[in-house]
Amino acid sequence: MAVSEDEANAVFLGLLRVQKLLVAAKHNAPRLEDGVDVTAYPVLFLVAGAGTVRISELATTLHNDVSTVSRQVSALVTSGLLEKSADPNDGRAWVVSLTDRGREALVRIQSSRAAWFQGLLTDWDGPCTTEFVHRLRELGDALDANLRARGAATPPMPFDSRNQKQKED
Questions:
Q1: Parallel, antiparallel, or unpaired: how do β-strands 82-87 and 52-54 relate?
Q2: Which domains does the chain possess?
Q3: Taking the model in full, what pTM does it have?
Q4: Quick check: helix, strand or coil at residue 64?
Q5: Residue 123 φ then ψ, to 5°
Q6: How do residues 78-107 score in pLDDT, each as one tens digit?
Q7: Structure confidence by residue, pLDDT tens digits, 11-35
Q8: Residue 3 bridge partners (DSSP)
Q9: CA of 79: how far to CAs of 26, 56, 114, in Å?
Q10: Coil, helix or strand for 130?
């Protein structure tokens, strides 16, 4: 059964509110790593999921300009969380990977974020949370399929919780 127009609008408005609140929270989040802006965290998550990845691939996956991601990567390299090296397949291009310090930082970041969300979700029970995550994935998959149908490149997100779960298994 399809959702009604009112239900679809309610979902959209609810997501819009959450998006705006997450942006506001991001700007007030504590910095866990000196010199690392929270806007660069997705770069860390993607590199962790990929192992070694080209900056252009990061930009495509994050739907950002290469110049933006390149600046974020440079800051992460300067802070010692990423290392940059020549692409073994094409010496003209660069690839990045996590350093040991980057892996340690990632654990701290993920632990801090998990603790924050645990605090936000104190009134949720396991089945409720599982259902929410399931529905959120379905929405993400539907949005991804819609973008692909429109010709927008949307590579899989390595920091998707399903991918994280697969790595842990």
A1: unpaired
A2: 31-168 (1.10.10.10)
A3: 0.73
A4: coil
A5: -90, 0
A6: 999 999 999 888 888 889 999 999 999 999
A7: 999 999 999 998 888 777 767 777 6
A8: none
A9: 20, 21, 23
A10: helix
